[in-house]
Amino acid sequence: xxxxxxxxxxxxxxxxxxxxxxxxxxxxxxxxxxxxxxxxxxxxxxxxxxxxxxxxxxxxxxxxxxxxxxxxxxxxxxxxxxxxxxxxxxxxxxxxxxxxxxxxxxxxxxxxxxxxxxxxxxxxxxxxxxxxxxxxxxxxxxxxxxxxxxxxxxxxxxxxxxxxxxxxxxxxxxxxxxxxxxxxxxxxxxxxxxxxxxxxxxxxxxxxxxxxxxxxxxxxxxxxxxxxxxxxxxxxxxxxxxxxxxxxxxxxxxxxxxxxxxxxxxxxxxxxxxxxxxxxxxxxxxxxxxxxxxxxxxxxxxxxxxxxxxxxxxxxxxxxxxxxxxxxxxxxxxxxxxxxxxxxxxxxxxxxxxxxxxxxxxxxxxxxxxxxxxxxxxxxxxxxxxxxxxxxxxxxxxxxxxxxxxxxxxxxxxxxxxxxxxxxxxxxxxxxxxxxxxxxxxxxxxxxxxxxxxxxxxxxxxx
Length: 463
Hints:
Elements: E1 10-15, E2 18-22, E3 29-30, H1 35-45, H2 47-52, E4 55-57, H3 68-80, H4 89-92, H5 96-101, H6 115-123, E5 137-139, H7 141-159, E6 165-172, E7 175-176, E8 185-187, E9 192-195, E10 198-202, E11 205-210, H8 222-234, E12 241-246, H9 253-261, E13 265-270, H10 274-279, H11 281-294, E14 298-306, E15 316-325, E16 329-330, E17 333-337, H12 346-354, H13 358-370, H14 381-406, H15 416-424, E18 428-432, E19 437-441, H16 448-462
Parallel strand pairs: 6-12, 12-13
Antiparallel strand pairs: 1-2, 3-18, 4-5, 6-10, 7-9, 8-9, 10-11, 13-17, 14-15, 15-16, 15-17, 18-19
Helix pairs in contact: 1-14, 1-16, 3-14, 7-8, 7-14, 14-16
């Protein structure tokens, strides 16, 4: 049986002749002193506001306490501040700065939503209407998918203008599951029960986060998602060159054929086989000799005009890296591409164009591990997809904050975990007067200069 603690003070030893005593009597204190930077980012970009437009609210407006936008702000800001579970909100709702950040005019008395209300937001069935009992907030799934591309176009236009070339990185990864969620299957490669979502990035911009069961090929559905995204981009940037980039899991005839028919270039990894290795035997021997003479790993590049025996419909340009490593091991690698040798020679195509593909994996890790995309524990597949999208929107919001507030500084590559620790998690006292909500930030905060610079840059965007 649990007991209620009634202790009013806590002794922590002494500092010299003075005792150190703690008490819960500090008034309205928040650890989210930097949440105002997220509020400014939202004012500039309208990310949460546009996400709100993707929902239909069938609740009676005269009987609701929290609007859809406030619910989404609360959920997204909480994830940005490191709180991933709905259960957290039964305590978080008492934080005055979180209440102010989502639009409560009196954050001391007007509390944000609890876990039950937020749960209704995520678990509303697709066909719910006004006659539903509790769950009446319906997401437009196609609109949410389009929103990611719209946000990318908006932010690109805001900071850099229309690009001459963009590279879309495709990747499939696992989200490990620990319950009986629908669509879970054992995946032999990942050696666990998981989902297998499809991600598409352009640099640090997330364009697609499609939840899928794991009993499928990693490239399943990629043609449909690529078609949708590229059609949406070309309505705004008709003259921009688009290049797809992915590992050998996406080297599939339907995707390559679609790209060739729609004037989209690609650079895909190509799984090695005996025919390919035999074709670069001379280069592998040369790389071995170089390695033995220099004592360092050596690379020799080659170009092939290659066609598979059955699966490919045509011959394609294949670039081979014949590499020999220290210790006597050869390491051949292959990529297939539509890019010509005049634009990219073999070495440049592999090292400068294909190898940076690994950066997309870092972005996926940031979203999954630091913004809790792996918290897919509901018993409805549609709800888990919505949770994945909410995590992706939180990632988009955090990257927008870095891009707008820290671009050009030494902090421009700051990831979410560092960002929240250095700029968002600040102790602050909150006081409410007739005209203002006063936020007294900690005088001992060590990154005051960085915070002031970030705030100044964000304010410039609002002018």
